Amino acid sequence: MKLFRPVLYVCGILAFLMAALLLVPAVFALFTNDVEYSTFFLSAGLAGLAGLLLVLPGLGHRFALTARQLYLLTSLSWLLLSFCGALPLMFSHHPLSLTDAVFEAVSGITTTGSTVMSELAALPHSILLWRSMLQWVGGLGVIGMAVSILPFLQVGGMRLFQTESSDWSEKSLPRFHEMARALLLVYLGITLACTLAYLAAGMTLFDAINHAMTTVSTGGYATDDSSMGRFSPGILWIAVLFMLIGGMPFMLYIRFLSQRNLNVFRDQQAQGFLLVVLGLISLLTVQQLLTTEREPFEVLTHAAFNIVSVITTTGYASADYTLWGYFSIAFFFIVTFIGGCSGSTSGGMKIFRFQLSWLFLRDQMHKLVHPRGVFSIRYNGKAVADDIMVSAVAFSFLFFLVLTVTTLALAATGLDFVTALTGAATALTNVGPGLGEMIGPAGNFAAVPDSGKWILGFAMILGRLELLTVMVLLTPVFWRG
């Protein structure tokens, strides 16, 4: 109980937070004559009751969380948020089964964007709003976790980007509150800017709010089955801009606001990310222009939108890119693994790991040519510590090991190889759509067997928490301490 009491106490506070958030669509439904208002009030009450039961054992105790408790808290908190988020989806007048509701909520809170729901335009607006809120809250949680908890646990690579002005994981509590407030304000400001841009481009207010939340969080939930395919090119380009903003390190925005200096954006990870995006867009655009007869601007628009959507792990689709030919299918499958920047709302393997791998490979080549030479790997002008390189290698090995196991597990449920492989990949990278007729950009996950949905849900949380944070809980050494 000594191990669990502080963890359950914090989880209880998070349950209270979810109860408060559930009141937002409840009030919205009440004022718009939406029949789902009672569903959300009931869900808020249940979440509040769960919070009370979790908090009571810890009342009157003073806590100082250890590393083991932080690992446990990180995993349990995301599970708790997912189950609280599933409540209104189960109790609504368009109810989902327990499996489908949890899958949808996990996909939302992890900002994956895979869905089992269809005919979205016919659903009550309060349900659509709640799905978008899940992703927005999940995106904020991802950033907060990436810059506070994961560096302390030496997971996620954020220690690479900490400086005296930005390293706040070991600072005093007032400093922690100051940075948390700055993150929230930046996140709110970008979301508001995205909302206004969508409004100016012709979206309705409801669509603008919902799509702004799922764009900035790089989540990908839409309010219609056609995703973003029903909107004009102008709206698609706005989405491209804000998906890129969501895929960049949020600490850069905070540094810029505090220093008012554009030099903060001279970051090796951010610059590498933008160069990769530009190169991929150019490659696919040229390939499509050479093999199709579509208008150049149309080709560029859809290539840019869908590439940015996949690489930032947003998961929007403006068209079914699996119909663009075999090159496109292979191309988007590879892009699925890349991901955005560390410290952003994006998932995936993250750009910095590919950069470190390239630097490591180059260092090995130099040593082969000059065996007696002394070389050091430098990133953002600083020498990279050996333990960071080891962590990056360990993550990459574990990622592909888990991908293999997840693919085999999904295949065992009866899914074909393409669906199993791309389903596992899109869950671990938090992208959203896979490939194939069933889970491709024109389909959804409703037809996946229930056992497959639980496997995918677990994989989404694994990917969102950078694998090692969850996997360490499955080792005997964790529980011996």
Question: What's the short version?
Answer:
By secondary structure, this protein is mainly alpha-helical. The chain is built from 18 helices and 2 strands.
List keywords for this structure.
481 residues; mainly alpha; two-stranded antiparallel ribbon; 18 helices; 2 strands; 64% helix; 1% strand
Describe this structure in words.
- The chain has helices at residues 4-31, 37-55, 67-91, 98-109, 125-152, 173-201, 205-216, 233-246, 250-259, 268-291, 296-311, 326-335, 351-369, 386-412, 417-428, 450-464, 468-471, 476-480; strands at 378-379, 382-383.
- With 481 residues, it is mainly alpha-helical.
- It has a two-stranded antiparallel sheet with strand order 1-2.
Structural class: mainly alpha
Query: Average pLDDT value?
Result: 88
Q: Span from first to last CA?
A: 13 Å
Total helical segments: 18
What is the alpha-carbon Rg in Å? Answer: 22 Å
**Uncertain segments of ≥5 residues (pLDDT<50)?**
163-174
The H/E string reads HHHHHHHHHHHHHEEHHHHH
Strand portion, in percent?
A: under 5%
Q: Shape, please?
A: globular
Strand arrangement in the largest pleated sheet: 1-2
Number of strands: 2
Strand and helix layout:
Layout: H1 4-31, H2 37-55, H3 67-91, H4 98-109, H5 125-152, H6 173-201, H7 205-216, H8 233-246, H9 250-259, H10 268-291, H11 296-311, H12 326-335, H13 351-369, E1 378-379, E2 382-383, H14 386-412, H15 417-428, H16 450-464, H17 468-471, H18 476-480
Antiparallel strand pairs: 1-2
